[in-house]
């Protein structure tokens, strides 16, 4: 039992962030991304973009063959309504706690916190604890949801930005529909799917003719994700959805996944990128801004915000609609799925993207748009820090609880069609 208790399953998200804080300005001041001046936000945006694109492409490849087609109904319920509910609720919480932000500005900040982060979510979809204790259906649906809703954060951010900077509501809604949905989301998804499909056919033909060997698939794993991101970004489409669609398309028939299934090289690359990314985030966190009374930001308000978001952002809605999602069989699994909606790389990425579309704030801010630009990253980054701590340590907490109560940890369906969720029986 003592040995089992030591297996805390602490992942690279928590460790990387902790190390980043230690070497960052708060402690050692060895690595300080925010000291890079005007380039800080651009570098942060692109670092997060690369990590997300590779992670989303990997998520698409890891899903079973034709998964998106067979589980389209469940994903539609899990992604769009859940995101919309969380977006509106989180915005309301932000508006109440920070009344200087109007509701439209609160919607913009909430859009950064709406997507589930696929990198942080890896603790329950890929780790050893997940394989032993979480049902396969839950793992895949959470992985697919986290990947899909990352790209769909664009429309939620776009409508908030347009309503903030446009003088006409009609103009804002028109741009949101044409640019946010038709051009970015629809075009990005179709573009990624076409690239993935064509590349899949090319790889199969090359493999059958012995033009390439198995090792080439690993090299193309990285190359295709970066290529898809480059094409989509160049034309202004949603590069995150494009990368996920490309990953799904290239492994649609299962051939690509079979070629790389037993190779650990890409997993190592993925872990290295994730570690580096969260070290960057740990050093990037603006601790100095968490007590800024001039912007109505205080530590106790930020703590209340984190608690309210963790409780209200996903859990109530998933508990209400889980019966329409076949992969979730009982309320315990719905509670588990609702809790594991972490915020991390995607939230930092969307907040950095928002700053590229907002004016540079003066001191004091001249209008609501400048006030939003001055407060968006302090609020988002503190919630990200809270999510990393809470979600990153949830798995160790579950494991210690299971060992302490001397229960057999099992999330898998038994012969009596019961499901054990962290020691709770459905």
From TrEMBL:
Transmembrane segments: 12-31, 43-63, 75-98, 146-165, 177-200, 221-252, 264-290, 302-322, 334-355, 376-398
Family matches, as InterPro entries: Cation/H_exchanger_TM (IPR006153), Na+/H+_antiporter_fungi (IPR004712), Na+/solute_symporter_sf (IPR038770)
Localization per record: Membrane
Protein family membership: Belongs to the fungal Na(+)/H(+) exchanger family.
Keyword Repeat attached: no
GO cellular component entries: plasma membrane
Gene3D superfamilies: 1.20.1530.20
Keywords: Antiport, Ion transport, Membrane, Sodium, Sodium transport, Transmembrane, Transmembrane helix, Transport
Pfam families per UniProt: Na_H_Exchanger
Keyword Ion transport: yes
Originating species: Suillus placidus
Domain Cation/H+ exchanger transmembrane residues, every copy: 7-398
Descriptive protein name: Cation/H+ exchanger
Biological processes per GO annotation: intracellular potassium ion homeostasis; proton export across plasma membrane; regulation of membrane potential; sodium ion export across plasma membrane
Major subcellular location class: membrane
GO molecular function: sodium:proton antiporter activity
Membrane topology summary: Multi-pass membrane protein
